[in-house]
Amino acid sequence: MTTEAPAVPAGLSASEAAHRLKADGRNEIARAQRRSLGHIVLEVLREPMFQLLLAAALLYLLLGDVGEALVLLGGASLTVGIAVAQESRAERVLDALRQMSSPRALVIRDGQRLRVPGAEVVRGDVVVIAEGDRVPADARLITAHELQADESLLTGESAAVRKRTAATDVAAQRPGGEDLPFVYAGTLIVHGHGVAEVIATGPRSEIGRIGRSLGDIATEPTRLHQQTRRLVRVLATCGLSLSAIVLLLYGWLRHAWMDGLLAGIALAMSMLPEEFPLVLTVFMVLGAWRLAGKRVLTRRYAVIETLGAATVLCTDKTGTLTQNRMTIAELRIGTRAHRVNAGEALPEDFRDLLEHGVLASEPQPFDPMEQAFHALEQQQPQKPDHRRHWRLARRYGLKPELLAMSHGWHRGEAAPIVSAKGAPEAIADLCHLPPEEMRAVHAAASEMAAAGMRVLGVARAEHSAAEWPASQHDFGFRFLGLVGLADPLRASVPQAMQDCRSAGIRVVMITGDYPATARVIAASAGIDVSGDVVTGAQLAKMSEAQLAEVVAHTNVFARILPEQKLAIVRALKSRGEVVAMTGDGVNDAPSLRAAHIGIAMGGRGTDVAREAASIVLLDDDFGSIVTAIRLGRRIYDNLRKAMEYLLAVHVPIAGMSLLPLALDTPMIFSPLHIAFLELIIDPVCSLVFEAEPEERDLMRRPPRDPKAKLFSAATLAWCLCQGGAVLAFIAAIYLVALQLGLPEADLRALVFAAVVVTNFGLIFVNRSFASSVTEALGRRNVALWIVLAVTALLLATTIYVPPVHDLFHFGVLHFDDVGVALGAGAATLVLLELSKRWWTRRIGARR
After folding, report:
1. What number of other Cβ atoms are within 10 A of residue 156's Cβ?
2. For 643-689, what is each residue's pLDDT tens digit?
3. What is 14-28+102-210's CATH number, 2.40.37.20, 3.50.30.30, 2.70.150.10, 3.40.50.150?
4. CATH topology of domain 39-91+223-295+627-696+706-842
5. H or E element: which one contains 406?
6. d(CA 519, CA 114)
7. What are phi and psi of 182, to 5 degrees?
8. pTM of the entire structure?
C-alpha cells in the first residue's frame, strides 16, 4: 500500500522567512495584554504609601510650608520611580521568559533543520512534526508515516484522527475528518511523524478563527503569598489603628489636631509594610530570571518556593544523566565480539552487520541510536557508495506487540532487501530462531546489558514478490548479530549526585532500559543501588499499598512504561515526600503535573511535556536540576533575610514615632523623615538581600519542611528582639540628649543619624543566618556597598547642606554627635551578633 515518499523540499530561505514574518505578522493569537508603563504607574499610585506621602504634602501646603511639601512630593515621585522601574524590569523579564517558554517548531530552511520559536513560523515554512508535538500552524502534509492527531481542541472529539498525504492538490478543509492531508495549529500529534508545508498562521489559522486565547492560566496564590498577605493585613490594621489613636491623643491632650494628623501619617508610614508584596514579587521574578541564566526556565513562579523542600528527585537516564549521544561500543556475531574504537576499520562481516543496522534506520535520523549507526558508518575508510541509487520503498514501524522496525529497499535490478533492527528478543522472534539459538541471543544480550550497553538485534531478508506484505513476520529474516550502544554520563552528574546526598535529597532513576543496564548506569552515576531493581512488570502486579512500601527503599526502576511513572509519583507523595520529576514524552505529562516539581526537557522534550511541567531544562542536564534546587534554596533564604530585616527595621521607626507622644515631648519624625527612611529600606530589600551569595551550608541542610511558616513564632520573636534592641539604643540616645538640653533641631538630627547608622547594623546582622559579620564581609555583594555609600552621602547632604537640613529641620551634627551615632551602630551590631549565636544554639529559630 505504501509507496515511495515524495522528496522533502529544502524549505524557505532565511531571508524569505524574515520577509514573510514581517508581512504576515507573528504566528500567535491574542493573549493577555502586556502591562503598559501607564498601567504600572496607575497601580503604583494606588499604593497606600504614595497616598500617605501625598496627604502629608497637602497638609504642609495648607500649613504654608512649601519647601517640605515639595520635598515630600519629590520623595513620592522618587518612590513611584523606583517602584515603576522595578515593575518594568519584572515585565521585561517576564516577556523574555514567555519567549523562551513558547512552543518551538522544527522547520527546514535553506535545506537545514533548525528549531525556531513557534511565533516565528511563517506561511510556506516546511515543518517536521512527530509524536508529542503541538502543530505550530495550519499545514498541508508532504509526507506522513502512521500519523494521527488529537484535534479535540478544535472539534471537541477526543478520538484521534488519521492523517495521510494526498496524491493531488486539494482545497483546505475544516478539521475533524479521517485521512485529511492537513494538520492544524494547536492540535497534538499522538502517533507517527511527518513533514508539512504551512498554509496559515496566527489569526488566519483554524484556532485563530475560533478566537481561542492561549494566555496565562490563573493560579491560586501560593502559601508564601497567603502568609505575606495575612502579615500585611495584621500590621496595616495595627498601624492605622495606632495612627488614629495618635491623632486623637494629640488633639485631646495637646489640642494640636494638625500636628496630630502629621504624627498619625508619620506613624502609619512607619508601620505600613507596603514593601512586603513588592519584595516578594521582585524576588520571585528575579529568581526566575537567575534560573533562566542557568538554562533553567521557570514556567510557574510558585515552584521557586517548593524547590528547597524537594526530598526525592525522580530522573530519567537517557539524556538527563547521560549525554544522549549514543555511540556503538560493541558488535557481536555469535560468540565473537568486537569492541569498537574510534577511527578503526571494522572487519568485513561486522561491516555487514553495521550496514543493515544503518539500512533499518531513518536516512536522516533524529534518534540518538540511529545517529550512532550513521556516524560509525561515516567513520569507516570504505564509504557505502554501492547504495547511491537504492530507494527506500517500505517502512514497518515499531508496535507494542513487536518492538522491531524494518525498511524495505529497492536495489535497481537486484532483488529488494529488508533490514530490521529492534529488541533482541523481537528480532530473534522475526528470524524464527530455534530455542537453543534464542537462549544464546538472550544470554549475549544480557551480558552486554550488564556492561551498561543498550542492545539491539539486526537481521536481513530478501523480498521477491511484487507487493510488499502487511507484516514483518512475512519475511524470511536471517539473524545477523547484536549491536551494543553506550551513552556516556554527563560530566556534571557525579558532583550533582554528591550535592543531592549532602542536601538530603534522594535520587530515584526511572528508565525504560533493561534492569542490568539501569543498575550499571545508576551505580556509575552515584545512585545507591544496594536495593533491588524493580521492573515495570513487577510494578504492574502491585497494589497501591505494596508500591508505597517498595518506593521507600527502591532507587532504580527499569523497563518502566511512561504511564507507570504516575503511579510511582503518587506512591512517593503518599509517603509525605516532596517529589521532583523529570519527563519528556506525551505520556509523561500526568506524572509531571502530579509531581510537586515537574521538570521537562527543553531540548528533546515534547511540547505537551513542557506545558505540563513547572520547570524546563533548556540543556536537558541533570546537573541543571541540582543547580535549580541550589538557587531555589538561596532565593528562599534571601527572601527570609529581607522579610526579617523589614520587620526588624520598622520597630525602631515606629517606636520613635510614638515615644515623643508618650513623653509629651516635641515630635521627632515627620512624614518627610519617614519617606527618606523608606527610600533606604526599599533598595536594601530588593537589591542588597536579593543579591546575597548563598550560605556556606546551603546544600548541607535537610530539605525545608514545605508546611513551615515563613515567620514562625521564634522568627517573629527574633525580629522583634532585633528591632527592640535598636529602639532601646536610639531611645537611650534620645533621652540622654533631652536631659542634656540639646536643642530640638540638633536632637532630631542626632536621632535620625542614629536610626540610619543602626539600620546599617541590622543589614549586616541579617546578611547571614549563621556566619559572623567578618565572614559575611568576605562574601561579594556589590549592591550592598553601593547602597551604603549612596545612603551615607544622602545622610551627609541632609545634615550638612544648609538648604537641605533646613527642610528636614535638622541642626548640624558635631564630631562627638557623629561618634555617638556610629557608636550606636557598632553597639547594635555587636549585641545582635552575640545574640544571634545564642539564639541559634538555644532556640534554633534560624531554619
Report:
1. 8
2. 888 888 888 887 887 787 778 777 777 777 777 777 677 666 667 88
3. 2.70.150.10
4. Calcium-transporting ATPase, transmembrane domain (1.20.1110)
5. strand 404-411
6. 35
7. -125, 145
8. 0.65
